[in-house]
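@channel sequence for tomorrow's demo:
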Amino acid sequence: MTHRVAVIEFINESNTFTVMRTGMNDFHASHYFKGDEIPANFRGTGSEVGGAIEVAERHDWVPIYITAAHAEPGGPVREEARSEITRECVRRLKENGPYDGVFVALHGAMVTETDEDGDSQFLREIRAVVGPEIPLAITLDLHANVFDELAGLANIAVSFRTYPHVDMREVGLEACGLLNDAMDGRTSPEIVIRRPPMLVGCDDGRTTENGPMCRILECAEREMSTDGVLNVAVNAGFTDADVWAAGPSVLVTYDTEKLRENSAAVAADRVCTEIWKHRDDWQRPMPLNTCISRIDTATQTGKPIVIADFSDNPGSGAYSDCTALISALLEAGVTNAAAGALFDPEAVAELAAHGVGREVSLSIGGKTDPSVGGGPIPVRGYVKAISDGAFRFEGPMFTGLPGSTGISVCFQVEGLDIMIVSDRMQMLDKNIFRVVGIEPTQKSVLAVKSMQHFKGAFAPIASEILVTDAGGLCTPDVRSRTYSRLRRPVFPMDQING
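C-alpha cells (generated this afternoon):
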C-alpha cells in the first residue's frame, strides 16, 4: 500500500544559561531547506532524514518533504525564528495534504522564548493541521529533555543509542519502519514516559568507554524483547537547560493491541531503576593545569595528543570563544599544535582584511562574555589561510551533509595554529580543521572544543585523549548553577533516599 508521508525536521538544543539567542541567521548558517531541497541534500547521508528517505523508497511511499531546519546548539530560539519556521511548515502541510503519516526529526531539548518545551510546541502546530488520528513518528537526540505532553502528540519515539551520535541514519530507519507498520495497520502505537529523580545521569550518555550507559541500554534491549514493546528509548537529558523535565527519561513505544499502558510503564520504570543504580558513575573532566602537565609526560607515538575543551563545547550551547586553553598552550610553549574552532567574527574580519602572509597583532576570543573561560587575549602571529568555511562532513557524524564555519582563518601564533571562525561549530569532523588548511593527522597536539562527539573522528588518530574543564559555560558542576524551573527534588542537587 502506498502511503503519503510528511517529512519534517526542526532541531535545536537550547542552553538557557547563555546570554545568546538562536535566530534565523543561526538556522541559515547550519541549514534550512524546503520542499525538494530536502532530498537533494539529505539523500544518502548519515542523518535521521537520510534514513527516512531510504524507508520511503523501500516501501514506495509518496514522501512530502516539508521543511528541514537545524541550528548549532545555542540560546533559546527567538520567537521570530520559531514563528517563521513553524509558519512555513504549517503552510506547506496545509497545501500538500492529506497524509497517512508524519515523520519529524527533533532534538528534544529545544527551548523557545515562548515555551520551555519547544518540541511539543512545534508538534502541537503539526497536529492542528494533520489531526489527532494519523500516526506520527519522531526521532530524538540522546540528550533530549522529554516533557509528558510529548506522549500525547507522537505515537512513536526512537532516540539515538550512541554518543558520539553515529547512528542517526539507523534511528531514522527504525522510526520510519515503525511508522510504516502503523500505517499498514499492523500496530497501534502509543508512548509512555517515565523519569528517575535525577538531573545528572547515564554518564551523560557516553557509549565509547563501555560504561554505565552501555549497561542501561542493555537493560532497555531486554525490555524490548517483550511482545508488544516496539521501542525503548533512553535519554540522558541535557543539564544546560533550566526546564522542568531536564534530566534522564525513558520512553516506551508500545502496541496498544498487545500491551496495556501500565505494563509499558512498568518496563520503563525498570529501566529508570537501572539508571538510578549508576547515579554516581559519571566521568569528570580534568583541571586545566593537570591537562597541560600531561602533555609533557605523554608517550610520543607519532599520533597527535587530542585535548578536548569540555566546558566550551558549542555543541552544548557554549560560546566557543573561551581562551583559557589556548593561553595555557601558548604559555607551555607547545609546538606543531592546532586549536579550533575559536568563535570570533570580529577577529576573522580583521585578519581577512590584512590577507594571507601578513603579520598581525590583535586580541582574539573572549568577547561574548569575558567573565567566562578567559577574556580576550592579545597575540601576535601571521595569517596562514583564509577560507569561505564551506565543507562536507566525512563522518562518522552527519556523513555527507554540507557544513560551514563561515569566513574562517588559520592564524599561527608561535607554535600554535588557531582556527578562528565566524560561525560556531563543534569540532567533530577532521574536515572542519581542513577548511583552513590544517591537516590534523600531521599535528602533535590538537585542541578541540567538544565534550564527546570529537571522539568519533579524532579517537582513531589520537595517541592520547585528554578532556579538560577550562572554565567555559558548560561546566559539569551543576551545583554551581541556579535552576528555577527544574522539578525538585532531583539528584545530585537534593538528598534522595533510594
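heads up for whoever presents: The CA atoms of residues 201 and 279 lie 6 Å apart.
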